[in-house]
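Q: Protein A?
A:
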Amino acid sequence: MNRPAWRDPLTWVVVVLVTLPVVVAAIAALGRNGALASDMALINLRLRDTGTVDTPLLGPFSRYGWNHPGPLMFWLLAPIYRVLGTDPQAMYAAGAVANAIGLGALVVLARRFGGRRLLAATAVGATLLVAGTGTVMADPWNPYLAMVPFAVFLMAAAATADGDVVMVPVVLGLGSLLVQTHVGYAVLVAAIGIWTLGWLVRRFVHPPADRRRPSRRTAVLVGVISVIVVGAAWVGPVIEQVSNEPGNLTKVVEYFTGNDSEVTGGSVGFGALARQLHPLGPWLGGPERTGTNTILNEASLWWALPAIVGLGVAMGWSWRRRDRRPLMLGGTVAVGIVAATFASTRVTGSAYFYLFRFWWPLAMLLWVTIGWVVLRAVAAVEPTRRLALATAALVVVVGAGTVANSIELSGDLAPLPGAPAVTAVTDTALDRLKPGGTYLVEASGWSFFGELFGVMDRLDAEGFTVVTDPRFVTQFGERRVLGGEDAPSNIDGRLVVATNGSVDYLARQPGYVALASWDPLDASERAETRVLWADIRRRLEGAGYRDLAAEVGNIPLDVLLANTGTLADDVGIPAATRTRLADLEPRGVRVTLFLAPPEDARS
């Protein structure tokens, strides 16, 4: 059918079917309760800042000491967040709404670019992606939030490469969003951008018979809109860059050009390619990491062959038939795969699985391209008079997926580590603090500081002014670290978020008042844990490892041994003990919120 995408009823039927499960996820998110911890607490804090004098000019923090380049994810989510309630539940719901909008845009662009056959292939691909990702669709964490926009970016880039100049501002806007949200997309956006620009110039010089060269008026209008989009997208990072020495963009560039840290290399890069393009890859819900580990689980390169060969055959078929548009989509995906493989080889530090999420949209659209070519090949043999039957079959298949996905996404999210502790201690402690007071909040004891971030977010939301240690300036900005620019200088008191062994230590110190405590283990489990710890301490001390023995009960045993290169068998720690603590310790992080004595408050 030649009618425009927006006038085709099937377009909107598919939009509803694909996005409905994610809308269900948004509604389910609004019904949850509790505080946040870790990165999610920081995102909630930044969303609450957006639209105020503290509107963020930078993106989420990076573990490398700088921020991702820009705040577009905060700026775009904030209006939805405020409409839905300005609380942790609204944050998750806003992430789901954003993904629903992105999936709807993907469907509309597919119909605009490739007609009903590409619409059909995209509908199936998007439904499978939602099924494979599950509740990630309601998670606004930046590595996850960038996935759906990247799929839309790929589709828009393919349309632009085919000569659809209206898509130029869309590509520029989405490219800006991706790079600002997670800098790992920079290589992919740059490579695909160069590919797209090259083909767009060719379309201007030698327009195909079915696409007229755009008028001067259209070209000028698209150019003006593009400049406005890019200017609006990058105004925040530019202001931050010229206002600070060094600016964040300088830090990012210097890190990637001057950093001598070891990178993951070809084994991880090609292992990621094989794992992600596996016939039952992670985007379909296949395994991505080893057990509960956060490290990417690689695979033999042979597992990528079905996908790569399938794409090659589809491209060959399209080339022989001079079928231009599938070549543009397939070529865009192929360029993305090459760039993604390169990017996967350049990760510094541990190869955490969430750093490779750009593979999911690529894998999905690779199979969408193959499916589209198959549908076009069938249509070349079989007249389209059976289109009505095929349309009905599409609605039934995608509809079944919609029902299944809606049921899945109506459930609860996986527990966020540290969040129950933050909820418990802040619920109890709020009434014991000076209303609207200014507090220095610090962490003590081994943790990844997730509880500290959660307490900071909760107190800020309740009207307290909070600052923390300057080492967290990347996470909180200058205004919320002690001694930072515009940070408060008069402190009413110091709060200490104590975890694990630090709980017992601070409880013995004079003047420390426990405002609230949380222990996820029951009395018998806690007693069993203490017995196991005591036995391990005796064994470590007997083997001459007194320093390690002192850390037992503070740092999880597996982390303690791994960080020091100590083998459990060498010090006689039984396998049964390690297995039992591997169950108890991850869910047994105790948290106590202490009010430090007045003389320890800093001012």
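Q: Protein B?
A:
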Amino acid sequence: MKLKKEINKIISQALVDASIEVHQISVSQSSKAEFGDYQFNGIMPLAKILRRNPRDIALDVIKYIDTKGAILKVEVAGAGFINIWLNPLWLQEMTKKMLLDDRLDISKKKSNNIIVVDYSGPNMAKEMHVGHLRSTIIGDTLANLLEFLGDRVIRQNHIGDWGTQFGMLIAYLEEIAVDNMNNLKDLEQFYKDSKKRFDEDEEFANKARDYVVKIQSGDEHCLKLWKNFIEISLNHCQEVYSKLDVKLTPEDVKAESFYNDRLPKLIEKLENDKKIEVSNGAKCLFIDGEEIPVIIQKSDGGYLYATTDLSALQYRDEILKSNRMLYVVDARQSGHFKQIFNIAKDSKLVNNETKLEHIAFGTMMDKSGKPFKTRDGGTVKLVELLDESIIRAKESIRNKDELNSNELEKLAKIIGIGAVKYSDLSINRTSNYIFNWDKMLSLDGNTSLYQQYAYARIMSIFRRFNSQIGSNINIKTDIEHKLAVTLLGFEDTLNRTARDSSPHYLTTYLYELTTIFMRFYEQNPILKDEIEDKIRDSRLALALLTSKVIKQGLDILGIEVVNKI
């Protein structure tokens, strides 16, 4: 149910009937009940155009507002604000419709959009670290959401697997005779050991350099070692994805090496289009307004990240037929993507109508506001952070006597992983993020545990009721009215989240919903003996609808619900 769209439509019609031409309007939700459920504050700009008193315009407009359906009454406030109260009977009808629909009455658009979501992007030379967390979970959430709303989503995991360091790595892999991932548990240490050999042993260094050339020229032996190393690395990544409950699979990987055969053709196209200038032997692309060019081929014939990124854009346009591409990458790469996107459009590597969006995000910080590191200043491995979260979650629920050991382990994983993901997603993605264990595992405030606890509380009500729940809803109290309005705003929230690629809109909505439900639960007894059956059944139906919305919202965020805590 697009609640704001429905109200906008009514207000728009009233403006037309009042002979006022408006191309686009928007109502906003009121923060206080005495000002109604929604407010239209678009009279002020109209007053300047019409050269009339804004309050007089507002008084004219409300004469034409239809109050026989969704809207119960309207009032003019202040200089010309129109306060809008929704009709409880209409709210009852719409919430019932929402409850009875498998998709919560959220339309699934018949979309021709093919959206590529590029996220995670781990380095094959090292294990995934905390720096990969935000890209992975923000990207997965956006992919989940766009799929739910009806777009065709293609997940792409662009990994770096083609560079000079791989000669060093496969030379060391050959030296220590590793042939399966069970013998190589610590990629970070493997990288450090191979780098140490490279720096200290000239013979090893020469061999490594020779291997780089052999890899690039297709030497069978070197390629076999290289493929073995990449497979080991990807298996490590997949373990992390599985623990994080994200939907990336090995089939979603499009490594730099995937585009290698396409790069000479890309250079040829750019040369034919007279886009390339040679500077000191390197092939460069100059962008209007920028002094420093983008190098796409070095003087020795080697390619750079920019070359591969341009080839990926071309592939996603030509082969995947994508008309929107989201790159969920650290904000520090903003300059790079601005250049790449400009070149791609200017060189017609992608259609001019194709939307290219850098979904930038800030850096994860510790409590002191510094980049998140280990005590000795090293990089925190992502799998270790996730394991720590599960351990802490287990400690917080260990005193639950009714849980056996298997239930405790399962619940701790759901709560721990959910806490890490939700805590990140609840922050405006463009902001730097302060990592705080105590806050993320708290039952107070905007946390996943707060959502999971609200869901579990509703499930406990249903277990005590132990009978089928109907769908008739009767809105009598102010808090029931507020809860219904909030529930009907779910679709608006999802569309806004998708439009701005900002998951914190959804987490903010869920927090507001659960907070209102908790107040509803405290003020409106559900299962007390003295409650009339009709009132009890209505409150049960509202509780059921709330649980469905919480579950769907958390599912989009990649977080599981629990039936009891």
